[in-house]
Design a protein that fits this description.
With about 180 residues, the protein is of the alpha/beta class. It is about 50% helix and about 15% strand. It folds into two domains: about 120 residues, Resolvase, N-terminal catalytic domain (Rossmann fold), CATH 3.40.50; about 35 residues. The chain has a five-stranded mixed beta sheet. The termini are far apart. The model has no long low-confidence stretch (mean pLDDT about 90).
């Protein structure tokens, strides 16, 4: 079987530029951050379906993992099953030959560059937010709740003993619930 794995960081983004016209038997799409592998349901489903001689196509290394450690672990997991992995943008194919030190070096170096890019982007983002806050421009994301909603949530917050259930009912985290009601 041939699987295509696509990933974008947010639900607003689309995967149209990834693996265009690459034939496959199944497509797995995650719309979440690539910072870790545990929170990507479609990746986990694909990994559970992998068998010997299957092929996994990925647009580029950063779509599979943003950390070198995760990238190496995922590739090794796929190779251990007997599958091969093709990174289309980089033109890299890993087909089970773990004894090729040059191939391992390429994967490690490109994975490290991808991780470096992410860390630089996050650093710049933090710097920009800090400058915007200092200038009074950045106020954070606008709440999806109206003032009336917040009044209602605060009233329920004061009367309920199960804060976790209240947060679940509104589709928010306990941390955000306490922030709203604090």
């Amino acid at each position: 079987m041939i699987f295509n794995y696509l990933r974008v960081s947010t639900t607003e983004q689309n995967t149209e530029r990834q693996l265009m016209d690459v034939e496959c038997d199944g497509v797995f799409i995650d719309k979440v951050s690539g910072k870790n592998t545990k929170d990507r349901p479609q990746l986990l489903v694909m990994l559970s379906k992998l068998r010997k001689d299957d092929v996994v196509n990925v647009h580029d290394l950063s779509r599979l993992a943003r950390s070198t450690k995760d990238l190496l672990a995922l590739v090794e997991q796929m190779l251990d099953v007997g599958a091969s992995i093709h990174f289309k943008k980089e033109g890299l194919i890993f087909n089970g030959d773990k004894s090729d030190p040059f191939q391992t070096l390429q994967l490690s170096m490109l994975g490290a560059i991808s991780q470096f890019e992410r860390e630089i982007m996050l650093s710049r983002q933090s710097e920009g937010i800090a400058i915007a806050k200092a200038n009074g421009v950045y106020t954070g994301r606008k709440s999806r709740f109206s003032d009336d909603d917040i009044t209602k949530i605060k009233a329920e917050f004061g009367t309920t003993s199960n804060k976790s259930e209240l947060a679940r009912n509104y589709g928010i985290t306990r941390q955000y619930l306490y922030k709203l009601c604090g």
